[in-house]
Amino acid sequence: MKQVLQNLKTGKIGVENVPQPILRDEGILVRTRVSLISAGTERMMLQLGQKSLVGKARERPDLVKRVLDKVKRDGFWATFHAVREQLDRETPLGYSLCGEVLQAGALASEYTPGSLVACAGAGHANHAEINYVPKMLTVRVPAGVLPEQAAYATVGAIALQGIRNADVRVGEVVVVIGLGLIGQLAVQQLRAAGCRVIGLDMSPDRVELAEANGAELALA
To answer: The pTM is what?
Structure first.
């Protein structure tokens, strides 16, 4: 089967032939119908891969700390070889898709072949023809929802989690700072929940889109 992979060392992205994933008891095999490209996350991965080792370190100080901790724990050479191995490997891209169930594991028998599901998770909902996805990262697609719409389930859930954490109430005024994909979805969800929404972004195009999506006021 074909899958989109990125080499972390060079940043090169390609479509490769890889073995089909193995079905496990806790999940399902899914044939991808629509796979969502996340412009923010995946562009960041592309740009990170194209940077030098020093550039990668500047972009991801959290990983630098983990490397330093490993040096203290395992020594320099063991850490050096581990880092080089990680950089040389091919990494799958993608984390949100909609597809058809091919086969269900013993503990996911509620899914039947041919049913439409939305799937989430980096390393699971990849840009690939077929994916193995744990059932906890899947949900049935309701009747009437198109695969192109269902593929947004993951990013929609991210926006919704932010709203839940904010603990907003019906009728409150909520400011959404940053009107990218997640921000646009948050604007629509907040409007549906009965909130008054103000959007802020540096891009006039995003501001205009937020107003079209229901923001009472949007400013650049």
So the answer is: 0.74
